[in-house]
Amino acid sequence: MKIKRYLAHDMQEALIRIKADLGKDAVILFTKKVRQKGLFGFFKKPLIEVTAACEDEKFIKKEEENKKTENLALSFQISQIKELEKKIESLEKTIKEAIKETTVLPETKESSKKNFLDVMRENLKRNGVEDEILDELLSKVSRDDSINNIVNNMYKEIKNMLGMPWSLNLASKQPQVVFFVGPTGVGKTTTIAKIAAKLMFEEGKKVGFITADTYRIAAVEQLKTYAEIMNIKTKVWYEVDEYDQIIKSFDDSDIILVDTAGRSHKNQEHMDELKAFVKKASPDEVFLLLSATTQPTIFKEIVNSYSFIEDYKVIITKVDEVSNYGNILNIRHYTKKPIAYVTTGQNVPDDIQQFNPEHFAKLIIGSKVL
């Protein structure tokens, strides 16, 4: 095992150096604050000493991996594009084969289109798209068009239904208050940490945390752990009336991310409590988190229970845990709200991306069976 010590002005600087030096698999063994040397060091802000470690083999290979990173990233992007193109080509091939099987010559053209629409409907259904949405999509496709036009129009209709991507407007008043709400286990705390890291490292924003999830001690400790690593101020919000006092301590922050308790949509008392917290804070933005693994019948109930929030954006979590992507279209259709981000794992801050409607429209119209 390779062990190294780092002296930095804050934890953020230390983490950047550790990741660049030892890689993302490095483990922090312990940290401590140390005074700077010399007489004048007594009057300066203490430094942070961080001891980190990684396997020798990983450390030896790190330099080679760094050289290959750019090429690998480019190759991965190209392979993704080729894979999506391959699915569309495979779909077209299936249709051409279906045309060849038509035996009555006068009806060949019309029969092939009908057969194609049946294949497309079945394909979308296999991908998890609800029947109600299928009917709406197919009603917008002209049966008189060529097969290529039908495919292109279906893709455009799905993309339009998914809507435009959305991101935080960081140019408005400061500090902004952003709430994260949703059922238990959907991944609110981890998602907050991912967004906070991106805001700090990519946007240069000063972030604050407030946790109102006092039902689970582990949730509070988890957020405090992320806050300590990223050097973020954190406050715990127990009672509704404490908000005004708490928010005053964040005057120097650009944005405040508020973690709320996971609420059962069937527990009206808990939902009323959440409603009181939201009403008191009157947040600038609210994100409703929904899992891609949730069945449509369940997330319809969840969406209805959060109807007291008039304007919110959606974050879809656990996209990496599904093999079919129709539920993303289902969520967008039933919420009628913009999708802001999708999360694809537990790694902070890497496993989160701004929603890309073009990408997911291709995944939805394609299928692993084609």
From TrEMBL:
Cited CDD domains: FlhF
Keyword line: Bacterial flagellum biogenesis, Bacterial flagellum protein export, Cell membrane, Cell projection, Cilium, Coiled coil, Flagellum, GTP-binding, Membrane, Nucleotide-binding, Protein transport, Transport
UniProt membrane topology term: Peripheral membrane protein
Subcellular location field: Cell membrane
SUPFAM superfamilies on file: P-loop containing nucleoside triphosphate hydrolases
Domain AAA+ ATPase: 174-320
PANTHER family: FLAGELLAR BIOSYNTHESIS PROTEIN FLHF, SIGNAL RECOGNITION PARTICLE RECEPTOR SUBUNIT ALPHA
Protein name per UniProt: Flagellar biosynthesis protein FlhF
Source organism of this protein record: Caldicellulosiruptor naganoensis
Lineage of source species: Bacteria, Bacillati, Bacillota, Bacillota incertae sedis, Caldicellulosiruptorales
Primary gene name: flhF
